[in-house]
């Protein structure tokens, strides 16, 4: 179950989350699929006998465990940000604002949205500012 939000999101942070939403979704998909694939192939033959780099853990299994641990933390952080945005979507009113928001969450640029809506990109920026204001307020 989700905990109730205790932190207030700043407009700038929310703006950044909306902009980054699409690539974070893709990154989560990619990281999860990588977690399923498994560890890298072990070295055999001459490669196994060559000297290893100094200054890091020599055990490749431990290296992989550390990398995966960091990866899991990154996925959790992205998921938290996505949930924050998803919880605030219902606050947006207006058909135009909803369409702009959905296209932004799909990864469309402001110029692409402006072209397809027949508006200027600065007008789209104003609509985005209005969306952020509605979501925060």
Structure description:
- By secondary structure, the protein is an all-alpha fold.
- The chain has one domain.
- 69% of the residues lie in helices and 0% in strands.
- The chain has 6 helices and no strands.
- The chain has helices at 11-37, 46-49, 60-88, 95-105, 110-117, 121-136.
- It starts with 10 loop residues before the first helix and ends with a helix.
**How much strand content do the residues show?**
under 5%
Mean pLDDT figure: 84
* Strand-pairing-aware structural class: mainly alpha
Number of domains: 1
Taking the sheet with the most strands, its summary is: none
Radius of gyration: 21 Å
Task: Give the distance, in angstroms, between the N- and C-terminal Cα atoms.
Answer: 25 Å
Bulk shape: elongated
What is the number of beta strands? 0
Compute the number of helices: 6
Helical proportion, percent range: 55-70%
Q: What sequence of helices (H) and strands (E) makes up the elements?
A: HHHHHH
Low-confidence stretches: none
